[in-house]
Amino acid sequence: MSVVKQKDESKEWYLIGITTGLIITMKHLLVNLFNKKKMITLNYPEEKYEYSPRFKGNHVLTVKKDGSIRCTACMLCATNCPAECITIKASEHPDAQVEKYPISYEIDMLRCVFCGFCEEACPVDAVRLGPEWQTPGLNGSNFTYDINHLAYRPALKGGVASIVDDQDRHKAGI
Amino acid sequence: MLKCTINGVALEVKPGTTIIEAMNNNAQRIAHYCWHPGLSVAGVCRLCMVEIQGNPRVQIACNTMVTEGMVINNTSDKVKDAVKWGLDFHLINHPLDCPVCDQAGECGLQDQYMEYGQYDSEMAEKKQKKHKVVDLGPTVVLDSERCILCSRCVRFTDEVSKTNELGIFNRGDHAEIGTHAGKPLDNKYSLNTVDICPVGALTSKDFRFKQRVWYLKDSETVCNGCSTGCNVKVYFNKEGLFRVKPIYNAEVNGHWMCDEGRDTYKFVNLGARLTKAYQFVSGTWIENYAGAAAKVAGANLKSAKAEEIGLVLTGQHTVEEYESIVSTFVNTFKTKNIFHWVNNKESFESFDGILLRGDKNPNTKGLLQVLEKHGINASWSQLEEGLKSKKIKHLVVAGPENTFVYPDLEQKMQLFLTAENLVVLTAAKTPALEAYKGSNKITAIPLKTYIEKDGTFINFQGRAQKFKKATTVVSEALTLSDAATLMAGQDLQLHVASPREVLVAEHIRADQVHLESRTKNEFVFNRGRL
Asked: Which end of chain A is more exposed for a tag (fewer CB within 10 A), N or C?
């Protein structure tokens, strides 16, 4: 890249430039000292930023009224996933009305790009992107979340109930 | 020949052809469920509506014969309206099960709904609930709610398998497909009903919920389940093969195939395969590369006397492979001790009247032809005697890949293990070898299965059927010809396709003119000349 330097008399005066910079720094320092509300940084571990409830964070598998997993293993999320991070194994459910359910549902969080396509593809509101986003881990920790973690991790307090209910749908004759 | 016009295209058809057959044979699209080219006409789905000039109402194409000068049209608004409402009636009680349904992705109802659907149904009533997950027999599961009562499966059991297990019970919207009490759907062709079911009402127990169909690729090949040699499509992805379905060949199998043939993918998958070569030397198994093991085995054979060498072949390999290995043994190792291993000899000639044959090898005819060509007529008793009297010390066995149809496998392996130096070329894991505790030398070399190689099978009629490689399951495995080349001490000639072959050859138009000067980089050397 070629830059053409333009001669400017004022820039040759070193002291003026230095003081202008210092004034800006001091201005911010004083504003932050006496008016904390206007400060734009956070004291991170103590203070946390409140994202919108619609934030697309770690996935949640929703549950039915009885606490079992809502997912029907249709694989539309896995088909739609651009990062190919969802792996599902389907199996025959003992209840003929449910018919098909996942015996394993894994999301590789390190591959996931949090685009939310899985949520969009799901025909039964079984997978959602939740508000959880702080999930650091040490070396060797597992970022492939399995079905139990996705549906029943402690933060979910027994699972997130889906708005769609099979029994209601059957009663309505759908 | 009758002259008719379908959708503005003038056609000539044979007398007695129905309109739907004429359209189907001439690549004209028409909605249909109950009509199947291999079954009789039922005319129950009322979707194949066509407008015939001079006829005030739309007619069904499957049950109307073409007459001289008929002008037929199925693209008019009148026909589309008829199909739309017909489809809406089919969908009155059809559940919205697509996420759970195995047929999703290859479903006739889905396809036609996208084309002719009445997207806002005018039905206010609740859907009729019927039985789900009904166990019809050992292979098939029925979901009555999804059934549109096209009666294809009922006609199949009546007309093709002639076992009459299925029927339609009850009336009106209570009508259901079912079996008579105590008579399950249990015949050797039952899985064809799953193929012809246009919706997901009949599903195969074997394939159910294993994969969504859009994850599978397909490839056409020849079934190696028996000497009939049905033309089939195998469905696979990187995890392996998942199912086999028949494709139409009027001369060989028609539209159908047997249930046994559908299991032929199971021995191809990784779990059942020998993946590496193993050598049994002084009491321990040593892992080796397939090619290296074949070369060592070949060197051992070369140092042996010609009359001490024997070769056992099964009817499970391709003609090309037989030619290669037999000529190697005849010309390089100078032996004519080549034996044909016949499994279940008693049922060899049996035939069930539809497709299934007792000869469970796809290429017995091919093997016999190659042996005849080289003038080989060694009998099995010669091998047994030779092994007993230690006349044959070096034995090469090209084992079966479909080990399920070789009930005498274990027993024959014990016989072969009496040879001092045994080379087993096999695609399948062989427990008899692994359990061996003795002092003889054994080499096991992995082979490719029929899915993984190009070749020709000659079926019982003497019809040579070529097939192409579909996928690779065990990358290290050799074909029998590769093994023969390596054993003869030669190297494999790998054909490395040039980019021009790979990229250009497929895209060259048939009428494209090749100019000599164009083969060079014209933009550098010949700019302006062309």
From this structure: N
